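Here is one chain, start to finish.
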Amino acid sequence: MIDFTHILCPTDLSESSVRPLTYAAALARWYKSKLTVLHVVPTFDPIPMRSPSIAGDFQLVYPVPREQVLEELRRFADAAGVGSDEASLAAEPGDPSRSIVDQAVAIPADLVVMGTHGRSGFERLLLGSVAEKVLRTAPCPVLLVPPHLTAAIPDDVRFKNILCPMDFSSGAMQALGFALDLARQADGSVTVLHVVEWLVEDEPRTQAHFNVPEYRQQLIEDARRRMKALVAEEPRNWSAIQDLVVSGRAHREVLRVASESATDLIVMGAQGRGGLGLALFGSTTQQVVRGATCPVMTVRGAGVPA
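Its structure:
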């Protein structure tokens, strides 16, 4: 059974990172787990800088000391409603993504909760930089909380309605295990969704050597058989499991189904078929996170190298 005993929540102290911290604290209350709030700075060491007034002369620039960063972090946590008895605070120097992963390994963390927008506030995600690197190398699942999360955050978080996109890769199979266990704990339900993308927008051509709609339907029927076999192995006495096969662009269908079914959480693999990782399957993951109005948990497949 999944048991989050220690949750790590990186923050850049921006307004957009308040919601992920609030969500991480709610998860920690529900799972009765430890919570570490981490802020990463470039360095705590003095930085030699050439003086603009005297050629060849250097002066030392002293960054904000660790104690001051921790004080600011404490004020930030208090403003987010996270009391001093609920979270441990950590300030570390270095590259943000590497420091986050190092801290996750050192704790060790069962879950990393982070936002998808940084201080810039641009619509392009942190996912393209810090969060993407964390997804590639984190030793545990990563829960991404979008800034446009619509649902109110309760005192405790239980995932009652989970959507699990399935491409039959190792990452997706691992994600399904997480989705089912999370639903079991909340007496909830899981919708396992497979999207057939190949030839989805093509129309039959007179020169075609095969019937495109007919072949597309064969792909759908084959996927349905695989999905039926997949969910048939799971017990249904603790939750409802629905298998769903549709055709279309993967991210569009994932977002559509999530919206229409009032999904609380999307759980998906961080590596798709072909072993190309986030470079390929991650394009779907990124677009899902961009448009999702609920949190998205990414899970790397067992034995998948970082």
